[in-house]
Amino acid sequence: MSKWFKEFLQTVFKIEPGEFIITAIMFIYLQAATGTFIVARITRDVIFMDIPGWRQKLPLVYMAVAIVVAVIMYLYTRVERKLRRDRTNEITLIVLFFLMILSRYLLLICDHWFKWAFYVLVEIMGSFLIVQFWSIANEIFHTRQAKRLFAVIGSGGVLANIIAGFGVRSLVKIIGTPNMLYVIAALLAVAFVMVFLISGRAKNELEEAWQKKAVRRVNQPEPPKKEKEPIFATRHLKTIAVIVVITYIVSTLVDYEFKAILGDIITETDARSQYYGLFFGLTGILAAIIQLFCTSRILERFGLLPALLLLPCAMFGGSMALFLLPSLLTVTLAKGSENVLRYTVNDAAMQLLYLPVPAAQRGRAKAFIDGILKHAATGSAGLLLFLATAILPGFINYHIKPEYFSLPAMALLLIWALLVIRLKKEYVASLLNTLHKRRLDFSDSSIKINDENTLKVVLDALSSNKRGYVLHAFELLPFVEQTGKEINDKIIELLSSGDHNVQIAALDYLAKAALPIQADKLRELLKSPNEAVRAAAIKAYSAREKQKAAPEIEIFLDDESPLVKASAVSSLIRFCGLNGVLRSADTLKNMLAAQDIKLREMGARVLGEINVPTFYEPLLPMLKDESHEVRSAAIEAAGKLHAEEFLQPLLEELKDSRFAAMAVNALVRYGSAIEEELIAIMDDSQKDPKVRENIPKILVRIGGQKSADAVSKQLLSPLLPLRFNASRALSLLLLGHQEITFDMPTVRAAFNGEVGEFLESAAMELDLAITDGNKSDLLFLDTFRHRRQLNLKRIFKLLEIIYPGTSWEVIYQNLGSPQKNIRANAIELLDNILEAADKALILPIIELTDLKVLLSKNPQIRRRSADERLKDFLSSRDRWLQNVAIYYIGTKKLSTFVLQLEAAQKAADEVVRQSALWALSRMPRHMNSAHYLEVALADRSPLVKNYALSLKAELNR
User: Fold this and answer.
1) Which residues of 170-182 are buried (b: 16+ CB within 10 A; e: fewer)?
2) Whole-number Cα distances in Å, 266 to 173, 488, 553
3) Phi then psi dihedrals of residue 449, to 5 deg
4) Are 192 and 94 in contact (CB under 8 A)?
5) 321 with 331: CB under 8 angstroms?
6) How many CA atoms, within 13 angstroms, populate the side-chain half-sphere of residue 62?
7) The dihedral of CA 499, 502, 508, 511: what is its sign?
8) Which of 320, 350, 167 is nearest to 243 (CA)?
9) Vertex 253, ends 248 and 254: CA angle to 5°?
10) How many CA atoms lie less than 13 Å away from 42 in the CB half-sphere?
11) Which terminus of the chain has a lower count of CB atoms within 10 Å, N or C?
């Protein structure tokens, strides 16, 4: 195949190299399968019309088809995966081939009964051909290939309608209608050859799909049965089901009218075949035009409602014309409108209706609709026709004309249209519900629970014998507006639980809620051998008895347990007035100054619990305590007090990765009072980078438009962690504050910048000619790939802002899946969500693994020589990139960079200076190694100096 033709296929039809042959085979396969069905339908209809009294028998055939096809297809699904998919298809095609040859012979020798059987056989054959084709197609191609190629392959089916229609019209003049069975057999033979070729071309994919199914069938245990939700649990799905039923009833009525009037007007067998051929040829052309040029435009420009109304309105117009002016022309218009619109615009729009339905429920609903409801609707229509044409005339002594069935058809079409209008509202409601459904957010204190069902759930959980359920119920209780006597009694009853965790949860709740409880019950728990229970009982008892509790609580100031001691101090200060403060003051001072780490930690926590901002002085030195536990408790307490004196110390804690998260939580408690100061620090490039990069995490939780505007500016920061945290913060801010607006030009600029950096990193890798096989290249290779991964992560955070309401984190995770189908599905989802301009930027960097191909599609990225790249890296502000470049130069002994390495010996970063010394030591021996060592030995850093000493010793050996 010539190069220009390959490029043409890739540009116009999006067929990638290596896909052309399999696509062509599938195209011919579908063409043969669809052509077989079209020719067979024409032949069987015309042959059936030769039966005496065929019009009265036609409704019985509709019923027979509905029953037999449903049963046969059900049985087929039970056995079809016993063999590999291609083998199943080959066997089916061979059987159908010989059945067609046999049918031609039986037509000569059999009575009219065989024409009945042939009618049903053709419907079975059509079901097999189409189902088997798309089944094998879905196993050969993953989602992304399907998106590109199914439109091309599907055009084979559209083309088959036209060719088969006009082909029958021409051939029947030459060979006659009965001999069209040989044409059907020939088309089946072509389909068989295509499947045989597929077996060789896509053996691996077919084998993998079959083995996966076999392993799942054999190895996986039967899942435990659980009560399933009803198939049509929502009004949305019920309405879809009713519309499908109406569609097939109306379709059957119109089909009957078409055949009845055609059979009455055209009496000669071959002439009927020719008319059928003309009908399918012309409707095929119109359907192709609508499918290729109108369907997507109708959906995009006019939306779902007009697209769904198009078919019932067109069929209503055709049925009305048929009723008023019954003729072959009007019945052709009624039937033709269905053939042209049903499988183009209407099918595409109906598929969209399933989007808001959860995947599992959608699959069950579609299976039930396709497997049962469609056939039931066709059979029901056949039964009604039989009663109206064969039974009713005997009672009323009047034969009902075919066009009269337009009246019930029009009534059903009106109902259809009304249901579509209602369904549009259901669709929007379901979609919004799917997008905005959130789990109960316990951080939102405005949430209140007061409905009886939820209260019963809480009571049942409190009554459970499982600790997890009970503790979860206590988490819900703060959001219950009025607990009621039953719940209150249950909480008091839980004080006697044998589970210490449950007792503590009940006591903590009682410390905050004023429930009627006898003091004696709490006094008993003050004697508990469990220190955590005693500590919780002290708080609950003090909260209830207030100053009267002081004498009993004071005893615990001498308790051996730091936890109990701290609870006593905290309770005396909070609940027992001035006397409580005076009695506990010395104990608190001793705890804060104690040598014991646990006592200091508990002392810090007490200061947080009593929450008096003026008690800040003892906490200040504890923010620098050597103990991790004490320092953590002090940070938490500082956040609770949020005194002005803690602000700078807490900002300093942002530099230490061990305490940064706790410091963020503490600073958030200051709220908007420190917003401007935080923004000023974040914007100041002279401030510590570690502090700056953590500030977006604080601002996002403070919230507000000012924070959003300030964080948005950092999307363009040269500091990578700050950029990432800014993008992450804005995506989180969007979830909690729908009213906030974003500076979209800045967001867009950041988005384009991240894509540009991704491509620039790819160019760097190619410019240095880095390969997996070279050990000296691995560090650079890992660096560039890691950078591109971070670019992609930041890109997805920005997409959360640009396209809110989408599960971008899930898509990003699935892009990294080792399973190609999962990855393809994620890319497919991107293809459907992104606008055209964004799609053109994102999809190539995700799909194209060949960096040369990727950069060829982005000629704006400037390519440079390896030496130019290395010089840039050596002068970069990025310390890691500097070190990697120095390592690369040293490993390859590139002496042309000696001057740059000498300059690196004076860098601010000690690791860079050490790396430069290592690289210089790798250069040829004639270079002045002694000079480099002298410089390093005089270095202020022990790291560099010690390395220089070890290097000097090595050189002297």
Assistant:
1) ebbeeeebbebbe
2) 15, 85, 106
3) -110, 125
4) yes
5) no
6) 29
7) negative
8) 350
9) 100
10) 35
11) C
Cβ of 940: how many Cβ atoms within 10 Å? 8
CA distances to 174, 256, 262, 273, 485 from 267, in Å: 19, 16, 8, 11, 85
Helix (H/G/I), strand (E/B), else coil: 449: strand
The neighbour count for residue 784, using CB atoms within 10 Å, is: 22
Tokens representing 451? 């409905």
User: What residue has token string 């070190």?
Assistant: 883
Backbone φ and ψ of 600, nearest 5°: -65, -40
**One-letter-per-residue 3-state SS of 789-837:** HHHHHHHHHHHHHHCCCCCHHHHHHHHCCCCHHHHHHHHHHHHHHCCHH
Element (H, E) at 20: helix 20-48
* Long-range Cβ pairs for the range 371-375 (8 Å, 24+): 371/70, 371/73, 371/74, 372/70, 373/241, 373/244, 373/245, 373/248, 374/244, 374/248, 375/66, 375/67, 375/69, 375/70
3-state SS assignment for residue 480: strand
| HSE toward the beta carbon, residue 373, CA cutoff 13 A | 21
DSSP letter at 370 equals I
Cα pseudo-dihedral 452, 455, 461, 462, rounded to 10 = -130
The residue that leads in pLDDT, 151 or 52, is 52
In a 10 Å sphere around its CB, with 0-12 CB exposed, 13-18 middle and 19+ buried, how is residue 87 labelled? middle
Residue with structure tokens 């198939």?
Answer: 231
User: How wide is the angle at C-alpha 695 spanned by C-alphas 805 and 671, nearest 5°?
Assistant: 85
How far is 163 from 324, CA to CA, in rounded Å?
34
- Of 365 and 875, the structure prediction assigns the larger pLDDT to 875
Is residue 533 within 8 Å of 503, Cβ to Cβ?
Answer: yes
pTM of full prediction above 0.70: no
Q: At what angle do helices 359-368 and 235-265 cross, to 10 degrees?
A: 30
Specify the DSSP class assigned to residue 464.
-
Coil, helix or strand for 450? coil
Nearest-Å Rg of the Cα atoms of the chain is 39
Closest-CA residue to 42 (of 156, 246, 187, 155): 187
Contacts (Cβ under 8 Å, ≥6 apart) of 547? 575, 576, 577, 579, 580
Three-state secondary structure of 128-187: HHHHHHHHHHHHHCCHHHHHHHHHHHHHHHHHHHHHHHHHHHHHHHHHCCCCHHHHHHHH
Contact 885, 916 (CB under 8 A): no
Considering only residues 722 and 362, tell me which one the structure prediction assigns the higher pLDDT: 722
- H/E element, 63: helix 54-79
Rounded CA-CA distance 449/915 in Å is: 62
Question: Nearest CA to 255 among 277, 284, 276?
Answer: 276
Question: How far apart, in whole angstroms, are the C-alpha atoms of residue 891 and residue 870?
Answer: 13
Asked if residue 219 has pLDDT above 80, the reply is no
Length of the chain: 957
Q: Residues 330-341: what's their mean pLDDT?
A: 91
What is the C-alpha separation between 13 and 291, in angstroms, rounded?
A: 16
C-alpha span between 172 and 163 (Å, rounded): 14
